[in-house]
Every structure is written in C-alpha cells, then in structure tokens.
Amino acid sequence: MAGRTRAREFFALPAGRLAKRITMGLWLLALAVALPVGLNIGSVQTDRTTDRLPADAQSTQVAELADRIPGGDGDQVLVVYHRDGGLTGSDRAAAEDHRTTLGVRMPLASSADGATAMFAAGQPNPGDDEQATAEFVDRVRGAVAGHPDGVSVQVTGPSAIGADIDAVFEGLDVTLMLVTTAVVALLLIVTYRSPFLWLVPLLAVGAAAVLSMAVIYAVARATGITVSTQSFAITIVLVFGAGTDYAMLLVARYREELRRNADVHQAMRTALRGVGPAILASASTVTLGLLCLLAARMNDISGLGLCGALGIACTLVTMLTLFPALLTAAGRRVFWPRIPRFGTTAPAGANRWRRLGGRALAAPARTAAVSTAVLGALAFGVLDLRGDLGQTDQFTSPPESVTGYATLGAAFPEQSGRPMTIATRTGDADRIAALARAVPGVARVETDRSGAGWTLLEASPAAAPDTPAETGTVAALRAAVGADALVGGDAAEKLDSRDATARDNALVLPLVLAVVLLVLVLLLRALVASLVVVATVVLCFAAALGIGALAFDGLFGFAGTEPNLPALSFVFGVALGVDYSIFLVARIRDDAARFGTAEATRRALRSTGPVIASAGVVLAATFAVLMALPFVPMVEVGFVVAAGVLLQTLVVQPLLVAPLLARLGERAWWPAVREPARAPRQPETMGA
C-alpha cells in the first residue's frame, strides 16, 4: 500500500507552485529544440512500394537490381489521344509534334476504330527519386498540353499513377494537422462551453505532436525505419485523439477536486493521483499493442507500429507534465463561465447515465445478450468485404492517369497489361526468356538492358491490371523460371504485398491479443474480467469492420479494400477499445470491495460514462478526419476506426461490459480474493 501511495505521489509532481513553473520552462526549451527538428519529418518519409515491402521480396530485389543497371527507360508514361467518332488529321499532327518535342522514337500507335492513338515516353535511370519521377510526369503533361479542341489527351501508366498518388500526399502533413486541430478545438468548445478552457488541452496536444514529430524523425534517421505518409498521418491523428482523451479525463477529475479544495495546486495533486495511474496504464496498453506491429514483414506496417508507439509515449509525457502545469497556472478562471467554486456541489449532469445504467443493469444477462446479438449481426457484414484494392482504384476521385488507363485498356486491350520485369544472370537470359514465353498469359518477352552480370527482361501479360488473371500470370511465371530468376514489377509488388500482409495478419493479430490480455491481467489482477474485456473489444472490432464493408460497397462504392485494413483496424480497435475499458473496469474493481460488483458497476457507469462517451466522440472525430482525404486506403482506415471507437464507448462499455461484470459479480475478479462489501463511502467522484 505504501508503495502504491508513493507511486501516486509521483504523478502529482507537476502540480506544485514551483514545479509548475519549472515544468513549463523545461517544456519551452524542449519545444525550441523539437520544432526545427520535427519540421524535417518529410525528409524521412517514403511512399515507394518497394520501401513498404520486405527486403527479401522478389519485387524488391528486382527494383534494387534495376537501379544498379544503367540504360533503359526507368520511368515510362503513356500518352493517349482519343476523340469520339475518330481522330482527325489535326489531332494526329498534334500528337506527332508532341512526339518530336519529347524526343520519342516509338511511332504513334492507332486503335482499330481510329478513335484512339498512343505512344510511350521514357526517362532513363531515374533511380529511386520520387521527385524526379513527378517532375518527369509534369514535363510530359506540359509538353502535350497544347492540342485541338475536342480531343482528350491523357498521360497515364504506372509512373503517372505513382506521381498522382504522391500529389495526393503533397502537403498532407500540414493540411491534416490544421484540420485535426480545428475539429478537436470545435469539439472541446462544444464539450466545455467555455471560451478559454479548450485552449489549454489544445496547446498541450499541439506540443505533444511537435515532440512526436521530432522523436520520430530522430529515430527514423538512426534506425532507417520506413515512415510512410499514411503511417505518419495516422500517428498524428492518434496523438491528437489520445491526448484529448487524457485531457478530458484529467479535467473532469480536476473540476471536481476544485469544489473540494480551496487551493488549485492541491486540487490538481489529488486529481493527478486519481487519474494518473489509469492514464499511464491505458497509454501503456496502446503502446504495447502498437509495438506488436514490429513483428510485421511489411515495412510500412512495422514502421507505423513504432511511430504510433513513440507518438503515444510523447503524448503521455506531455499530458501528465505540461498539461497539468498549464491548467494549474490558469487557475479557476479558465473554466468561466461555469467556474467550479470551493464548497459547491457539482450540478446534476449524470441523470441520463443513471437512467441508462438502471435499465441496462436491471436485467444484465438480457442486456448483454441483446448487445452481443446486435454486434454479431453487424459483424456478418465482413462477409461482404471486397478483395484487394487495385492501383487505379485508390483515388476517391479518379485523376487523369486513372481515366487514361481506362481509355487505353478499351482501345488497346492487348497492350493494357502492366509489364513485368524478370532479372536473371546474363548467361541464362536466353533460356529464361524462352521459359517465360512459354507461360500461358505472357504476351511477349523482350530484353530490356544488361549490366553488372545481370540482364533484365520485360514480360508483358495479356491480362488487364489488378485482375486475378494478372496475379495468376505472375505466380505462373515465377514457378516457370524457378530459383534462376526474379520476377518484379507492379503486378509482382501487389502479389508480394498480399502474401506478406496475409502472413502479418496471421502473426500480428494473435500477438496483439496475447499482449493486451497479459497487460490487463497484470493491471486488473483478474483473469475473468480481463477475458471479458478482450472478448468484447474483438466483437466490437468485427462489428466495426462489418459496418465498414457494407459502407464501402453500398455507400462509397469502393472497388475493394486495402489488404492491411484488417490488421490496422484490429490493432487500433483492440488497443483503443481496451483503453476505454481500463477506465471503466479499473473503477469497478476499486469500488467492488466496498459496494459489491453490481453496485460498483452502477456507480462506475454513472460516474465515468459521460467522460468516456465524450472522449470517444472526440477520438472518433479525429480519425474521421482521415475520411476527408482523397485516398481510399485512408478513408477506409478512418471510417472503421471511428466506427469502432463509437461502438466501444456508446454501446460496448455501457451495454455489454458493464452488464457482463454485474452479472458475473464477484466471480469477475477470479482468481483474486475479494473482501466482503463494506459500507458505502461518500461522496462519489468522477474519473478512472
């Protein structure tokens, strides 16, 4: 008991009269260093597919070999001309002028109906410079901008699609930060109904974001982890959402303590002793869950795990040091116009949760059964989850490169396949080429270039891009050439990504469950209650993914889902769901010895319900910000996680976890031995 008391005193350190000034001073120095460092985060971000894939994947090895071999067209785009009813002489003359301007040797190819023509323009040896690829695509688009009215000229191909994806992410960090800040600010103003209070948590969360950017940049530079734009965007959203959650929990407890203590410093010390351990426990659970992603083979997923864990760690430090110091320095005035006066009682605001708790716990078994049935029915929506999202389906609004690909495929179906690259030792090149030509589905095989003892062959599949036939051709080609050659290219990258993601799902998901369950058992010291929490968050995840599957098809009209969506939504759904369960179940556990589990559950639901619900709405709204981005994978992750958080806080906690614990009674705390319930203590406080 003495050890726990000393540990709780540690959380109260930033609340002292002198300590708050020292804390704010140290944070000013830290932010002065962190801000210029964090602004360099873009220099360590990469969105190349080969950076996302494992180093031993065939497509990754082929890409590395291609970078070392001089010559050939590294970046290639296709310029497509189309006019309904047939191209005119002026149209073809403009196309010939464009070929001359770009120095293209390939003659203009025409479709059978004469309505479409195309040529390929290449840039030799671009290396792995994404900026060079984007500049090349822009240069081609600028060169073909002048053309007769009525003819459409579209620049497409894998390089153009890649450049358009990069354009989606350009400036995304700043945009996402501003939009997330605005959303959080609005929700805090609505929640607190104060013109000043919302600024304090927002300043603290902003400081946490700056610190996170600096730490992630430093770790990425030191370790070489893959930091994709998607990973960083999700991390920033997580920092804002989690930081705001922790702030709301502390503010709720601090507001109550201000009515019991004349001194704001003593009120903050008491509040930190009360909620500090719960915030630490919940942040630790999320951090450990995210660190499980380090076991993933996909580099961007393992990078997200480390980035997210670093972001949560920075957020935890910020919200337990800088935030209480700022809030204490602001004094009671920051709550105006609803200032909590010393000696007053809190206004009645839990009547709705008191009624909800009464109805839900009047027949806990029935409530839990109905909730389980509803969530289970929603989970069946997973059966409608579509297959892998194709490269051309990743945009919410198709850009020119995507529409041009569709035009090309309709006019030249025999040339619409994406070329595959075969890397073989130069001495085996002829034999490997013959084996490749014999593979069903391979339209032609040509020598691309040679160097450093290797030869690259270009194999064109007959299948259209992002189809099962294309994937089957890659697999058949790899089987035909065996260990004597490597097969890469866009289609091969998709296959490697799918295989690595399937392995990650099979490994990471059980690992996350095991780690979270272990943390819960150590925290709650109760196996049964821990199993209840884990089972409910898994059911909630399945329901959220089911809702997402139905929405992606019927509401958004998406053509598929990202292969890593289940893993990402599972990790966030479980980690964040357990996060909220900790606040509720830890409070029930603390009061169960005095009131019995059933009564403790009613009191905990009444006291923590409003705070958990408000925090869940804020976190869901921050993840929903991802849905405003014009990139389908981001929309899917944002939707599923937001739906999961809302289900967890508004349905699972009050209508499933609480009734189950009330129904189990003292058995929920097995194998711990609980003392008989003693007389109720008064007054009841809010917090975790």
Structural summary, described in words:
This protein is of the alpha+beta class. The chain has 4 domains: 1-38 and 171-347, Multidrug efflux transporter AcrB transmembrane fold, CATH 1.20.1640; 73-124 and 129-168, Alpha-Beta Plaits, CATH 3.30.70; 349-384 and 525-688, Multidrug efflux transporter AcrB transmembrane fold, CATH 1.20.1640.10; 406-496, 2-Layer Sandwich (Alpha-Beta Plaits), CATH 3.30.70. The chain contains 22 helices and 8 strands. It has helices at 2-11, 17-38, 49-52, 58-68, 89-102, 130-143, 158-169, 172-192, 199-223, 229-260, 264-291, 299-330, 351-362, 364-379, 400-411, 429-437, 468-481, 490-524, 527-554, 565-595, 597-624, 632-664, and strands at 73-82, 109-110, 116-124, 152-156, 420-425, 442-451, 454-461, 485-489. A hairpin with a 5-residue loop joins strand 2 and strand 3 (116-124).
- Class by helix and strand content? alpha+beta
CATH architecture of the largest domain: Up-down Bundle
Characterize the quaternary organization of these chains.
single chain
Number of strands: 8
Average pLDDT figure? 85
If strands are numbered along the chain, what order do they take across the biggest sheet?
2-3-1-4
Shape, principal axes of CA atoms = elongated
Q: What is the CA-CA span between the terminal residues?
A: 19 Å
Q: Which band does the percent of strand residues land in?
A: 5-15%
Please mark out the parts with pLDDT under 50 across 5 or more consecutive residues, or reply none. 679-688
* Helix share bin: 55-70%
Radius of gyration: 29 Å
Specify the CATH homologous superfamily of the largest domain: Multidrug efflux transporter AcrB transmembrane domain
Biggest sheet layout: 4 strands, antiparallel
Order of helices and strands: HHHHEHEEHEHHHHHHHHHEHEEHEHHHHH
